[in-house]
Amino acid sequence: WPSAFTYYKKKLLKVFSAKAILLKHKEKPGTILDINKDGILVATSKDAILLKEVQLEGKKKISAYEFACGQRLKKGVLWD
């Protein structure tokens, strides 16, 4: 299956569903801009990306919102 990946706390995080969002912001790339039922909105250098479905290394695929809740992610924090 096509996917992208990143790392979260030094563990591989596969991104199975995401959407580019045109959004003007002044945050550093990687900053969590919002978390809601649609997913995790993360700042990029120019716009943002909405992570919708992810899978942390060794875990099952879940919605990005479930991941955010389980990891206690907070808006305004830099993606680690």
Automatic annotation (TrEMBL):
GO terms for MF: methionyl-tRNA formyltransferase activity
InterPro entries the UniProt entry points to: Formyl_trans_C, Formyl_trans_C_sf, Formyl_transferase-like_C_sf, Met-tRNA-FMT_C
Enzyme Commission designation: 2.1.2.9
Enzyme class label: transferase
Catalysed reactions listed for this entry: L-methionyl-tRNA(fMet) + (6R)-10-formyltetrahydrofolate = N-formyl-L-methionyl-tRNA(fMet) + (6S)-5,6,7,8-tetrahydrofolate + H(+)
Pfam families: Formyl_trans_C (PF02911)
Keywords: Protein biosynthesis, Transferase
Residues annotated as domain Formyl transferase C-terminal: 1-72
Domain of life: Bacteria
Function of the protein: Attaches a formyl group to the free amino group of methionyl-tRNA(fMet). The formyl group appears to play a dual role in the initiator identity of N-formylmethionyl-tRNA by promoting its recognition by IF2 and preventing the misappropriation of this tRNA by the elongation apparatus.
Family note: Belongs to the Fmt family.
The protein's name in its UniProt record: Methionyl-tRNA formyltransferase
